């Protein structure tokens, strides 16, 4: 990785990022153009069949960012980070989008959910090896949390981990595992003490997704994609050296991952990228919906929701009132989902059946995947009901009912 003097002021940092990326624009943007066989707009990015080249390109882009010293602006210096505020991570994401680089959806979970848990809770050797691998593009990570009987009630997971000498043996089933079919490693929440209170009997492990006993089965969604997966763990042996945090401290580790997931879902890596916003404006203007009094109320709701989300996302630490800073991730995630909802409603209202039936019209059926994918945003990262409870109880100090 190249060591250079990196400016901290946001505008100067943005100029530095553009300068570092400029030599690679043609290499990546030409490949992106050759990949695009439709004009679809996605709320939840889903790699399609024959995605090997796309994934390889994402890994290559990540290695370019790492070598340029801008892969992880907010990360610790000993792991290749710059120890800058999180806004600098957003700057990199936005500039990549602005300059036409490919998205990094296959890397999202590893970079934004798995890596923070490792940084805060893993032993030094595991942290250095895996976090560096994730941020260099060598590894793709996934999150083995939800189960068929434990989704929103995450502390109710039943996948078992039994100690066997220096190893643990894992048995159980996980579900809704984003990018599990591409992952090299998975952060698995496992019950290691069935007699302890449910939050206290959990331990977190890092699973080799290529290990014997790991089976991944993609789940086809109504959008036509298969970004989520079932994962079966049948007698999977995990060395104790791959334990993340202490035995029985899995819930604390999971809370770190979930907090980062909720906050990053509302940022540039989420569905409301500048590209989606530009396409929304183009759609409204092309169909003359801005001049139609029937559509103006929905346009106003959409503008208000997006403005609220952007205003909250721009708040600096310490600007949150009423003790809400610790739950800012939940607040931002809710605002992001609401803004995406309003965009989907607007697209559906102005397009009607053309959003779901392909008549060959430009920028019409392309919206189907966004409209059909938005409901997933109310589940991913914790359901709306869970977010409401987090905000009410941990942020506002309200009692449990």
What report would you give on this structure?
The longest helix has 24 residues. The chain has three domains: 130 residues, Orthogonal Bundle (Butyryl-Coa Dehydrogenase, subunit A, domain 1); 112 residues, Beta Barrel (Butyryl-CoA Dehydrogenase, subunit A, domain 2); 125 residues, Butyryl-CoA Dehydrogenase, subunit A, domain 3. The chain starts with 9 loop residues before the first helix and ends in a 6-residue tail after the last helix. Strand 6 and strand 7 form a beta hairpin. Helix content is 42%, strand content 13%. Strands 1-4-5-8 form a four-stranded mixed sheet. Strands 2-3-7-6 form a four-stranded antiparallel sheet, with no helix packed on it. By secondary structure, the protein is an alpha+beta fold. The mean pLDDT is 87.
From the structure above, extract its key features:
401 residues; alpha+beta; Butyryl-Coa Dehydrogenase, subunit A, domain 1; Butyryl-CoA Dehydrogenase, subunit A, domain 2; Butyryl-CoA Dehydrogenase, subunit A, domain 3; 4-stranded mixed β-sheet; 4-stranded antiparallel β-sheet; 12 helices; globular
Low-confidence stretches: none
SSE order: HHHHHHEEEEEEEEHHHHHH
Let me know the average pLDDT. Answer: 87
**Count of separate structural domains:** 3
Main sheet specs: 4 strands, mixed
Number of beta-strand segments: 8
The portion of residues assigned to helices is 40-55%
In short:
By secondary structure, the chain is α+β, with helices and mostly antiparallel strands. It contains twelve helices and eight strands.
């Amino acid at each position: 990785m190249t060591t250079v003097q990196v400016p901290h002021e946001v505008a100067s940092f943005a100029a530095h990022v553009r300068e570092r990326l400029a030599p690679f624009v043609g290499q990546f943007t030409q490949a992106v153009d050759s990949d695009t066989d439709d004009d679809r707009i996605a709320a939840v990015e889903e790699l399609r069949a024959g995605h090997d080249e796309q994934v390889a390109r994402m890994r290559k882009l990540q290695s370019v960012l790492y070598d340029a010293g801008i892969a992880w602006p907010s990360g610790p210096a000993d792991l290749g980070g710059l120890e800058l505020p999180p806004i600098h991570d957003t700057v990199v994401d936005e500039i990549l989008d602005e300059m036409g680089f490919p998205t990094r959806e296959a890397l999202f979970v590893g970079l934004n959910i798995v890596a923070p848990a490792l940084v805060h809770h893993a032993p030094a050797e595991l942290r250095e090896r895996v976090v560096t691998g994730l941020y260099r593009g060598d590894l793709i990570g996934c999150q083995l949390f939800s189960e068929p009987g434990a989704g929103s009630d995450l502390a109710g997971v039943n996948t078992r981990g039994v100690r066997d000498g220096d190893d643990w043996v894992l048995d159980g089933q996980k579900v809704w595992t984003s990018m599990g079919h591409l992952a090299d490693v998975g952060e698995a929440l496992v019950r290691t003490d069935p007699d302890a209170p449910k939050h206290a009997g959990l331990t977190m492990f890092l699973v080799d997704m290529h290990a014997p006993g790991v089976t991944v089965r993609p789940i086809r969604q109504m959008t036509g994609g298969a970004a989520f997966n079932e994962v079966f763990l049948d007698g999977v042996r995990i060395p104790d050296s791959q334990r993340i945090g202490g035995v029985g401290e899995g819930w604390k580790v999971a809370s770190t991952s979930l907090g980062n997931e909720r906050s990053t879902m509302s940022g540039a890596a989420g569905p409301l990228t500048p590209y989606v916003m530009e396409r929304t404006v183009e759609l409204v203007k092309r169909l003359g919906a801005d001049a139609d009094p029937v559509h103006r109320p929905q346009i106003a709701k959409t503008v208000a929701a997006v403005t609220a989300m952007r205003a909250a996302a721009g708040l600096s630490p310490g600007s949150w009132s009423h003790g809400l800073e610790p739950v800012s991730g939940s607040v931002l995630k809710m605002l992001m989902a609401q803004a995406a909802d309003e965009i989907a409603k607007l697209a559906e209202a102005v397009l009607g059946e053309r959003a779901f039936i392909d008549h060959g019209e430009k920028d019409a059926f392309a919206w189907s995947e966004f409209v059909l994918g938005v409901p997933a945003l109310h589940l991913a990262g914790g359901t709306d009901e869970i977010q409401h409870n987090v905000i009410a109880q941990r942020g506002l100090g309200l009692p449990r009912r």
